[in-house]
Design goal:
Elements (H helix, E strand, L loop, with lengths): L3 E6 L2 H11 L2 H9 L3 E6 L15 E3 L2 E3 L4 H15 L2
Length: 86
């Protein structure tokens, strides 16, 4: 099974709009999902200037989460894992 890649945008807009709180995912996700998920901080995902919506942004594999929260990110990981296990 391929690892799920979670990229947290830490660019200025995302950081100010809640991305700072998302840094806790680096501690939460490994405890919850073990080695199945890789969490990375990214200086900028360059999504603020596009039509993706509002910051903060998190990219889970190729899926973009706008107005990201810890709950939204964990829910997406659970969704991906449940489809991988089938």
């Amino acid at each position: 099974m391929e690892k799920i890649k979670v990229e947290i945008c830490l660019g200025t807009a995302c950081f100010v709009m809640g991305g700072a709180d998302l840094q806790d995912l680096s501690d939460i996700i490994p405890l919850k999902f073990g080695e199945k998920v890789e969490v990375l901080g990214n200086t900028c995902l360059d999504l603020c200037s596009t039509e993706y919506g509002k910051a903060p942004f998190v990219k889970v594999n190729d899926f973009i989460i706008e107005k990201a929260t810890k709950d939204k990110v964990i829910a997406k990981i659970n969704e991906i894992l449940s489809t991988q296990e089938k």
